[in-house]
Design a protein that fits this description.
Keywords: DNA-binding, Transcription, Transcription regulation. It is built from 15 helices and twelve strands. The chain has 334 residues and is α/β, with parallel strands linked by helices.
Length: 334
């Protein structure tokens, strides 16, 4: 089992520097911190949580607040949990997952009890009550998802507007002039899921700028409504040559449904979407798509949070980081 001395040797620093990197008692340079973190990951070093707690009054635990809605597609949320957990463990933190319906109360309870050193809010919505609860705590936090009011917050999210523009441009450049957009269900918009209207509004605007006809329709999240909805949209838009799928549950069902209709991709219909590589593998999805980057989002969020725990305001100003939208061409467009 690796020791703190082993980490110091591999990183080329003193044992005390490794200790400072773990505890946050003193500032160290970003380059030195990177070398220490690289050594920790390479050696699979796990700091003794009890000893660290005694030295620093920290718990070595991060609270992760997750909202699971019965009317949403659970696999889409689950793909974020492992990257967050792995990123935290690489930096010597355990994760406490809280899934209570009243997330604000759970957050306050965890913070006031001293159970956690910091908090991660997943699936953040506009007007999210957990955000005000976070602002009232002493512990720092980071949001994965963009709320309406970001003042004083560290926020990480995919650039959904850029993702939409990239997909519209991709189809337009191939000559498509009549395209359908299948959005998340209406209840996601109503609930305040900002990613839904950030993507839809950007797609509609870009299509208008290009003179492309784009028909935007809400999708569904549960069967049999998914199939009924997709059949209805395709029947309504027989002249469409391309479809943009921004709905995880619906795109998972699309290959089967198109096969049943005798629609060939990309010969009869070009398909583009937005999901992660893991999601594509889980559901055998062959479509060109924007990489949703749950792994990168988790790593960026945890890195920002642990820097804030260690250095407070010295970690830099609060702000929003939008991860670039990278398109993966899987040959589903023509």
């Amino acid at each position: 089992m690796a020791t703190i001395g082993d980490v110091a040797r591999v990183a080329g620093v003193s044992r005390s520097t490794v200790s400072y990197a773990l505890s946050g008692k003193r500032s160290i340079s970003p380059e030195t911190r990177r070398r220490v973190n690289d050594a920790i990951r390479a050696l699979k070093f796990t700091p003794n949580a009890g000893a660290r707690s005694l030295r620093t009054a920290q718990t070595g635990v991060l609270g992760l607040l997750v909202q699971f809605h019965e009317d949403e597609f659970a696999p889409a949320m689950l793909q974020y949990l492992l990257p967050i957990t792995e990123a935290a463990r690489a930096l010597g933190y355990d994760i406490l997952i809280m899934t209570e319906n009243d997330g604000a109360e759970a957050l306050t309870r965890a913070a006031e009890s001293g159970m956690v050193d910091g908090l991660v809010l997943l699936d953040v919505i506009d007007g999210d009550p957990r955000v005000d609860a976070l602002r009232a705590t002493q512990q720092p936090g980071v949001l994965i998802g963009l709320p309406g009011d970001t003042r004083g917050l560290d926020v990480v999210d995919l650039d959904f507007a850029a993702a939409a523009r990239n997909l519209v441009d991709h189809l337009y450049d191939l000559g498509h002039r009549d395209v359908v957009l299948v959005s998340p269900p209406r209840h996601v918009f109503d609930r305040g899921g900002t990613y839904s209207w950030r993507f839809r509004d950007a797609a509609v605007q870009r299509a208008s700028e290009l003179g492309l006809t784009l028909t935007a329709r809400y999708g569904e999240s549960q069967q049999p409504a998914i199939d009924e909805n997709l059949h209805g949209i395709l029947d309504e838009c027989p002249d469409a040559t391309g479809i943009i799928m921004h709905n995880d549950a619906s795109v998972a069902a699309l290959p089967r449904l198109l096969h049943e209709r005798g629609v060939r991709v990309p010969d009869d219909l070009s398909v583009v979407s937005l999901y992660s590589r893991d999601f594509a593998r889980w559901f055998s999805l062959p479509y060109t798509a924007i990489e949703s980057s749950p792994g990168l989002l988790g790593k960026v969020a945890i890195t920002q949070l642990t820097e804030r725990i260690a250095h407070g305001d010295e970690a830099g100003p609060h702000g929003t980081r939008l991860v670039a939208a990278e398109i993966i061409d899987r040959g589903s467009t023509r």
